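Entry 12.
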Amino acid sequence: MKLLNVVTLVLLIVGGLNWGLVGLFQFDLVAALFGGQDATLSRIVYTLVGLSALWQLVPLFTNQHTPVRHGEHARHH
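Predicted 3D structure (tokens):
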């Protein structure tokens, strides 16, 4: 499970950076690398990014995430 979470997180980062490039510079890096938006490889990457987003939603709705505790510091005595 942990490997799948890491892979999906990496894909989401790739997708987010790609959308940032599209928004800022109208440049789709995935399309540029794989032969255009309609190319099979581009569509596979887009699909994997979308599936990764769905996978990462699961912990939000099933309460399987580890709570983050802000403001706590490790105490060394």
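Annotation: The radius of gyration is 17 Å. The chain has one domain: 2-60.
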